[in-house]
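Students often ask why we bother encoding 3D structure as a string. The short answer is that it lets us treat folding as translation between two languages. Here is a chain of 191 residues written in the first language.
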Amino acid sequence: SQIATGRSGENITVEPFHLQIICQACEAGIEDKLKHGEVDRQINKSDLPSFVNLYGDYYRRQIEQLPEDLREKAQQLLENNLIHTVPNTNEYRRIPVDKDVLISELTNIDAPPQILDMLEQAFLIRREQNSVGGYSYEIAHDTILDPIVNIKKQRQELENEKKIAELLVSKKRIERERIFGRITLAFLTLW
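And here it is in the second language, the structure alphabet:
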């Protein structure tokens, strides 16, 4: 009852999508307990997931269900084709994209068209019939936009750090080669 009513006693409704995510997180927590030999026949308040990163955890779990060789490609498809960044703001919007356009993009990133079905079954995208008799796909719900964008930013930061480290190593190698070249040149002129 504490979960079903707000602070001032008003009723709170939960959208089916949110309830699905909450239940899936509870299930994952219970499965983890079972793996460690803990048997609990009742779902308690302590079994509820942390709501701090509920949607980020959901997104990660859904991506991890995909075959390992398709995870990065699935993320690329979601991040680069189904989300629009509003210029000069920190706002993002999900955009519907025609199936044929996505199939073309999948070809470009060397991913099979079946990835669309996998993402739909993982409830990360949804398919809707469009006005020309085909299908369009979009991110399943606005609540998972932030996790998708945040994970993309984290990955880009790691990639940037890696590039900087590679540049520093390259710079040091070039400096060593120059010093060696100068020493060799000085040695040869003295000879």
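Translate back mentally: The radius of gyration is 25 Å. Keep this in mind for the problem set.
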